[in-house]
Design goal:
The protein has six helices and two strands; from the N terminus they run H-H-H-H-E-E-H-H. It is mainly alpha-helical. Strands 1-2 form a two-stranded antiparallel ribbon. A hairpin with a 2-residue loop joins strand 1 and strand 2. The longest helix is centred in the middle third of the chain and has 24 residues. The radius of gyration is 16 Å and the shape is flat. The two termini are about 20 Å apart.
Length: about 150
């Protein structure tokens, strides 16, 4: 199921870029996000980590030469560090429930942050949301509801 989601995400991300000229936050991102769409706390976590990564890279770019490949690598490194930080410090127990404001993966926030800088936050989020929802729908249809066990 994970392989299917990633493959569909790759295809949809490529189509989004070729047809609309909008990157969906990186080529593998829609597949991973599509698998986690029902986890609101994780979605919040990945967006927070991506935004903070974007802001840090933007501030750094005022003091250093960050462009092209260098900017991408710095975004990935900072995103990975903040994603690990979120796993360690952004899990909260609220009564009987647990809220995990943790990022998805370690490379996903950096990729999203990189595209925030390239094409803007709104355009990136729109393309990411559309492609991720299509991935999620396709996986649900193909696996006959296995993403919702017990339901």
């Amino acid at each position: 199921m994970i392989e299917l989601a990633i493959t569909l995400g790759l295809i949809l991300s490529l189509l989004s870029y070729e047809i609309f000229g909008l990157a969906a936050g990186g080529i593998v991102v829609p597949g991973y996000i599509g698998l986690h769409l029902s986890q609101v706390d994780r979605m919040t976590g990945v967006l927070l980590v991506s935004l903070v990564t974007y802001l840090i890279v933007k501030v750094m770019s005022y003091y250093t030469f960050l462009y092209g490949r260098r900017q991408m690598v710095v975004s990935l490194l900072i995103g990975a560090l903040l994603a690990n930080f979120s796993r360690q410090f952004l899990t909260f127990n609220v009564g009987a429930a647990t809220a995990e404001l943790t990022a998805i993966g370690w490379v996903v926030p950096g990729l999203i942050a990189h595209w925030f800088g390239k094409q803007g936050i709104f355009k990136t989020l729109c393309a990411l949301l559309v492609t991720s929802v299509i991935v999620r729908l396709a996986v649900i249809v193909l696996f006959d509801g296995q993403l919702f066990p017990g339901g």
